[in-house]
């Protein structure tokens, strides 16, 4: 049995605040997620009923860190109103935040789709990109399937750029510096070897930098 505090000696204000907090804890809540779209916009969506139930079960077992199972996952969300046929434009975004709210919406345009999946990152990006695209495309029309494919690729490219842009620029800088220094010296075998290596690093870094800066 839960321990109930004795409020008989409390002031009216303290008792009122305590009763409000108790009512909030007892009130039904919903799980909401903040989704960042590929263009950088962030919007809040309520999770659908089937995911709400699963999240509630998970939250009971992992009360302190329940949000970790969904934070960073890719999820499909509507970005338009549903038409009379029930069709809607879908995009894939990444979950940046998750929270419980004593709030519920009946607007389907504010409710995410059930498909969400955690990306597995390797040294170069999302290693399970193909599997993610196939899973997220399930039960969508051709236009939305194409949009989901492009969105996942953009998200992957952004991750690559965030993790490789700075090392790439440093490699260009030092590759160019070493090449110039080697040219200023003689042509001993060791210098030729270092110069050749610096040129290869410089060319590779320039190509990588071109890829990272390409428009999606």
Give the termini distance in whole angstroms.
58 Å
Q: Rg from C-alpha positions?
A: 26 Å
Backbone structural class: alpha+beta
User: Can you list the strand order of the major beta sheet?
Assistant: 2-1-4-3-5
Topology as a string of helices (H) and strands (E): HEEHEEEHHH
Report the uncertain regions: none
> What is the percentage of strand-forming residues?
5-15%
Instruction: Give the CA-based shape.
Output: elongated
| Percent of residues in helices | 40-55%
Q: How would you characterize the largest beta sheet? A: 5 strands, antiparallel
Average residue-wise pLDDT: 82
Instruction: Tell me how many strands there are.
Output: 5
Number of helices: 5
Chain-wise SSE layout:
Blueprint: H1 12-26, E1 30-36, E2 42-46, H2 49-61, E3 74-78, E4 90-101, E5 116-117, H3 129-137, H4 142-184, H5 189-212
Antiparallel strand pairs: 1-2, 1-4, 3-4, 3-5
Which descriptors apply to this entry?
216 residues; alpha+beta; 5-stranded antiparallel beta sheet; 5 strands; elongated
Describe the structure.
The chain is of the alpha+beta class and 216 residues long. It has 5 helices and 5 strands. It has helices spanning 12-26, 49-61, 129-137, 142-184, 189-212; strands at residues 30-36, 42-46, 74-78, 90-101, 116-117. The chain has a 5-stranded antiparallel sheet with strand order 2-1-4-3-5. It is elongated, with a radius of gyration of 26 Å. The termini are far apart. The mean pLDDT is 82.
């Amino acid at each position: 049995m839960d321990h109930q505090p004795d409020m008989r000696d409390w002031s009216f204000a303290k008792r009122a605040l305590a009763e409000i907090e108790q009512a909030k804890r007892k009130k039904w809540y919903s799980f909401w997620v903040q989704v960042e779209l590929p263009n950088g916009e962030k919007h809040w969506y309520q999770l659908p009923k089937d995911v709400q139930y699963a999240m509630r079960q998970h939250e009971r077992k992992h009360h302190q860190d329940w949000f970790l199972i969904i934070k960073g996952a890719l999820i499909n969300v509507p970005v338009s109103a549903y038409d009379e046929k029930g069709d809607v434009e879908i995009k894939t975004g990444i979950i940046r935040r998750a929270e419980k709210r004593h709030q519920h919406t009946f607007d389907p345009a504010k409710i995410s789709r059930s498909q969400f999946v955690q990306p597995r990152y390797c040294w170069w990006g999302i290693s399970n990109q193909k599997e993610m695209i196939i899973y997220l495309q399930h039960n969508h029309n051709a236009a939305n399937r194409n949009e989901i494919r492009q969105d996942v690729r953009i998200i992957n490219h952004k991750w690559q750029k965030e993790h490789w842009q700075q090392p790439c620029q440093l490699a260009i800088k030092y590759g160019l510096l070493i090449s110039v220094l080697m040219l200023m010296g003689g042509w001993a075998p060791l210098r030729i070897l270092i110069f050749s290596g610096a040129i290869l690093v410089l060319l590779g870094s320039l190509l990588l930098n071109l890829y990272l800066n390409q428009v999606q």
